[in-house]
Each structure stands twice: as structure tokens, then as C-alpha cells.
Specification:
The protein is an alpha/beta fold and about 250 residues long. The chain has helices at about 15-30, 45-50, 80-85, 95-100, 105-115, 130-135, 140-150, 175-200, 215-220, 235-245, and strands spanning about 5-10, 35-40, 60, 90, 120-125, 160-165, 205-210, 225-230. Strands 1-2-3-4-5-6-7-8 form an eight-stranded parallel β-barrel, surrounded by four helices. α9 links the parallel β7 (about 205-210) and β8. α1 (about 15-30) packs parallel to α2 and α1 packs parallel to α10 (about 235-245). The radius of gyration is 17 Å and the shape is globular. The relative contact order is 0.16. Bound molecules: 2-phosphoglycolic acid.
């Protein structure tokens, strides 16, 4: 069985009480799983979940981080603050943040550097829009996101890539197995060209975008797919644990 990374991106959902209810059901159900399991809740639930997951096989991640250590950045949060409340991972450059919070590749790059320097593992999201795919620009978009986002980064040990085609996020449309396999292979090639064979060979690439209990098995069996970043289908403890146990 291939060991996968299965990360839940809760986006802006769940109160502390709801998160703890989730943990109470989820921990028990996935305790025999050999996969790497990560839940990324809203900031306010990171601490409660880190406590609830203590001694289990589940880690907690955040959904964003600032690139500065501290200072006059109203509404932001630093990598050390996230570590302080028990986060081990952080999602960086999710397409919703690129879209609604004007996160550019340069900002993603600064955030990645700060996260890994602080000892967090970063889940770097990349992905093309429907128009870009239709215009055959998928690879140039992904290459630019990877090249600019990873500028100046010399090792990939604490970076996971999540390929999430924007048109597949929250839409119920998943990329076909063929599209996913082809794109993941392309991402590997780009990483190899930037970092060389040795450095890039162990990089993990997750697929994200409407992954659910019916399609997970097929997607996760594909070559170069090392796991999934799951949004909507990670909100239910029962459903997400079923998904994890089925792959
Ligand atoms: P989705 O979200 O599974 O609800 O499509 C995935 C993501 O945005 O990470």
C-alpha cells in the first residue's frame, strides 16, 4: 500500500465546539491508518484540535501565514504563532487566497521561506483556471507558479505541492485521471529542472479539487499522486474517515 498524505482543508468552517466534536469521532476511526493525516482548520480551532489530536496519528495545519515575524500587520498571523498553538503544517497560496486576497507568486514565495525557516511544513498550492486550461496554458501557468513561488528555496524537504485546478475546487468537477496523471508528471519535470533529480525525487504532490469518497480511490492510485487536499469532503468526520480508510 502506498503511504499517502491526506489533508483536510476546512476553509472558513467550524467553531471550536464543532471541531472538538469532529475530533471525538475522527481520531478513533482513523487510528489504525498508516497514512499521514492532517486537518487544517481556521486559526481559532488550531489549538483545540492540536490538543484533541495529542498522542494520535493526526497533525494540525493552518490555512495561511504571514511572512513577517511580528509587527504592524493587522489581522495577520506569524509562523511562530502557529507553531505556538500546535500547528505543524500550513497551506500557502491556495487559489482562494490568490483570488480574494491578491496573493501573488512573490508573496507565496516569502511565505514559503518563512514557514520552512520556522520549522513548519508548507503545503504549496498551484493550479490553473478553466480559461487557462482551455487556452492550453496549464503548463506555463504551473511552471510560473512553481518557478516564482520557489525562487531562492534550496531544499524541498519541508514543502509539499498541492495541484488544485481552480475549476475543480468546490465544483463537483474533478480532473480526469488522465489529466491528473499528465499534470503531476509535468509538475515533477518542472521540479526536476529547478532542483535536479536528486533533490526533487522525493517531493510529494497532492491532488485537490472535489476529491470525495467516490473518486478518491482512483485518483490516489495514480502514479505521482502522493495524496489529496480535500475541502468539502473533509468536513464530516464519518465521511472523511471513510475516505481515508478506503485508500
Ligand atoms: P474541495 O476543495 O475539495 O471542496 O473542492 C479543495 C481545496 O480547495 O483545497
Amino acid at each position: 500500500m502506498k503511504k499517502l498524505i491526506l489533508a483536510g482543508n476546512w476553509k472558513m468552517n467550524k467553531t471550536i465546539a464543532e471541531s472538538v466534536d469532529f475530533a471525538n469521532i475522527f481520531c478513533n476511526r482513523v487510528k489504525a491508518s498508516k497514512h499521514k493525516i492532517i486537518i487544517c482548520p481556521v486559526f481559532t480551532c488550531v489549538h483545540a484540535l492540536a490538543q484533541a489530536f495529542k498522542g494520535t496519528n493526526i497533525d494540525v495545519g493552518a490555512q495561511n501565514v504571514h511572512f513577517a515575524d511580528s509587527g504592524a500587520y493587522t489581522g495577520e498571523i506569524s509562523a511562530n504563532m502557529l507553531k505556538d498553538v500546535g500547528a505543524k503544517y500550513v497551506i500557502i497560496g491556495h487559489s482562494e487566497r490568490r483570488q480574494y486576497n491578491a496573493e501573488t507568486n512573490e508573496i507565496v514565495n516569502l511565505k514559503l521561506k518563512k514557514a520552512i525557516e520556522s520549522g513548519l511544513t508548507a503545503i504549496m498550492c498551484i493550479g490553473e483556471s478553466l480559461i487557462q486550461r482551455e487556452k492550453n496554458r496549464t503548463f506555463s501557468v504551473l511552471k510560473k507558479q512553481l518557478t516564482e513561488g520557489l525562487t531562492g528555496i534550496t531544499e524541498l524537504d519541508n514543502i509539499i505541492i498541492a495541484y488544485e485546478p481552480i475549476w475543480a475546487i468546490g465544483t463537483g468537477k474533478t480532473a480526469s485521471s488522465e489529466q491528473i496523471a499528465k499534470t503531476h508528471a509535468g509538475i515533477k519535470r518542472v521540479l526536476k529542472s529547478i532542483f535536479g533529480q536528486q533533490q526533487s525525487k522525493n517531493i510529494k504532490i497532492l491532488y485537490g479539487g472535489s476529491v470525495n469518497n467516490s473518486n478518491a480511490k482512483e485518483i490516489l492510485a495514480l502514479k505521482n499522486v502522493n495524496g489529496a487536499l480535500v475541502g468539502g469532503a473533509s468536513l464530516s468526520a464519518e465521511k472523511f474517515s471513510d475516505l481515508i480508510l478506503s485508500v
